[in-house]
Amino acid sequence: MQPITSKTENRSIAIHRLNMDEAGNAGLKFGVSRRHQPAEANTQQSKAKKIAEQKYKEVLKTAEKSKKSDDNDKNEPTEDKEVQRKAEKERKKIYDEILKKCQKKRSLANAKLRKAKAEFKKAIAEAARKVEKLVAKAHRIDRYVNYMNYLTG
């Protein structure tokens, strides 16, 4: 049986799962399944997301400060929307830049993996050739021994 958890723990678990899904889906955009994503890429994506969210929060804080100072302005709602749009664009731009870096790292990791697989296949083929040669040599020796036994026997 699982231990009884509080509502806040359940909520935090659900939020954690949601964040993990979002990180996985970000990787799926680039055609990489979650199972084959390098762990490094996931951490880079989460870092990118955190940095983008921090920038977004900073811009919103400055917008709130300016909003408090200009409470009597009639154009306040349009300015607020404009500031939010700018903040959203900035956050998206930062997030996209970091995702591009992650994509480059992932492509390099995939290239190294392909190269290692090719070298491994070559090594297996070479070992198979050597084994075949040894087996053929063993058969020749066996036939020679049988022939010698026949002559001496």
Automatic annotation (TrEMBL):
Residues 99-137 form a coiled coil. The keyword Coiled coil applies. Residues 32-90 are annotated as: Disordered. Keywords: Coiled coil. Residues 50-90 have a biased composition (Basic and acidic residues). This is Uncharacterized protein.
